[in-house]
Design brief:
The structure is a single chain. The protein is mainly alpha-helical. It is about 75% helix and about 0% strand. Helix 7 runs parallel beside helix 12. The longest helix is centred in the first third of the chain and has 33 residues.
């Protein structure tokens, strides 16, 4: 891998996204809009918003980054751009790292906007540091980016890329502990939830919600989410194809 080629790839992706306002709106504004809507759904029970809002502060960025990244990467392959790039002295690792860096920078902006909105304007009450909340939200967005890059290798069209969402995202959403504590699930489902990264993303948010200091469980959750993101990025580089079959 070359840092120069990685930075050049990231700069090219950001230039392309600058001319795609719909994708930028999806990444930056939709999570904020969903949090705003959720706040007033629970207008009469702010305690419920505190409990659910912190978790969804990590879930929403993961979902939006997954969608945008998978579709954008697939568009590069179906248009032939990816094949032309890989004909240059550009390795798969450089390409994946460049995409991850570009979308990661957008994830920083997205996470900062959503966290700032929730804390300053929607009254989300957390016991821990807001910076820890931002850290988990950012890692969740990066995980969504990594998952999007990975699944794009297995889709033949943008429609198929969207179809991967029920298979990759929805099971994690149901089993992450958002709707019911994971230890109250059937033993088999609890065992499955223990290996899904979104479970640790939600647990990390809940640690910040309930504890004023950094706990051992929080450190574990952050390391698991970050490790899963790196692992999926490596798998994405290994499975990246030049063109759609």
């Amino acid at each position: 891998m070359s840092s120069a080629r990685t930075l050049a790839t990231a700069a090219r992706v950001l230039r392309q996204l600058r001319h795609d306002p719909r994708s930028i709106a999806l990444m930056l504004l939709v999570p904020c809009a969903m949090l705003f809507l959720l706040r007033y759904v629970f207008d009469k029970s702010p305690g419920t918003f505190d409990t659910i809002g912190a978790s969804l502060l990590g879930v929403f960025p993961l979902i939006t980054m997954f969608l945008v990244t998978s579709i954008a990467t697939l568009r590069e392959r179906t248009s032939g751009t990816l094949e032309r790039l890989l004909a240059l002295p550009l390795g798969k690792g450089d390409l994946i790292a460049g995409y991850a860096l570009a979308f990661g920078l957008l994830a920083v902006v997205q996470s900062a906007l959503a966290t700032g909105l929730a804390l300053r304007f929607l009254g989300l009450d957390v016991v821990g540091s807001p910076w820890l909340l931002l850290l988990v939200a950012l890692l969740d967005a990066l995980l969504g980016t990594a998952l999007g890059l990975f699944v794009s290798a297995f889709a033949a069209s943008e429609f198929q890329a969207v179809q991967f969402m029920p298979a990759v995202i929805f099971p994690q959403l149901l089993l992450c502990g958002l709707f019911t504590p994971r230890d109250r699930m059937a033993p088999a489902l609890e065992a499955v939830s223990n290996v899904l990264p979104m479970s640790y993303a939600v647990d990390g948010m809940n640690q910040v919600l309930r504890h004023p200091d950094v706990t051992g469980d929080f450190v574990r959750d952050v390391l698991v989410v970050a490790g899963c993101a790196l692992l999926v990025l490596a798998l994405g580089a290994a499975t990246l194809r030049r063109r759609t079959a």
